[in-house]
Amino acid sequence: MTVLVRLALLAAVLAVWEVAGRAANPLMAVPPSAVLPALRELLLLRSYPDLPASLLLTLREIALAYGLAVAAGLACGFALGMNRLVGRAYGPMLAALYAVPAVVWYPSLMLFFGLDAASKIAFGFLLGFFPVTLAVLAGIRQVNPQLVTVARAYGAGPVRVFASVMVPAMLFTLVGGLRTGLALSVIGVIVGEILGSKRGMGALINHAYGLLRTADYVALVLMTLVLIVGSDALASLVERRARKWSE
Question: Where are the alpha helices (DSSP H) in 83-144?
Fold first, then answer.
């Protein structure tokens, strides 16, 4: 039943899009019937022959940005969570910085790292770092302190306590933060490419938009949407398995 409802909703959206696209200015909007040929040309590498290289570059930037965000987020969250005084002092500051619109930081990152891949990786890292750190910090606060006391009484060090006691107890919260961090890292890299880059999927989107190749622009956006939804679906699968394991 759920699948039928989703298909009906998709059909309704496509129908409305088709009618609105045909009535609108073709330079500003196109119907799905015009997007399909553009998507075919795109997949056949006729309209953009450098699509595979651009896609691989974007995926590599996402992997680097997310890997750095996870590593730094785990370390920072662990440091803040294990020391209550430091956590209470700096935790609100992290939450306040996380609330700042991310696009505010991008001009500074561009000036510091330039227009190459480094600024896109830094932007993706910045967006992914905060949810991972805050998830670790919140997860540590949920752990029963008596379990930590017992582990330390048996000679477990800070790293062993974190890996053997805290991670299983905070797994669901941690995986949720990792999932959010992945989605934001993907968005950060692609938005960074759109705002200023000569390569990558975002650069192709910006190129098609600048030349008013609306059908190609929509086709590229759809491909990018598949990338974002696919990464979130993979993260969702990991989250469901973590939930079953924690239960």
Answer: 84-99, 106-113, 117-142
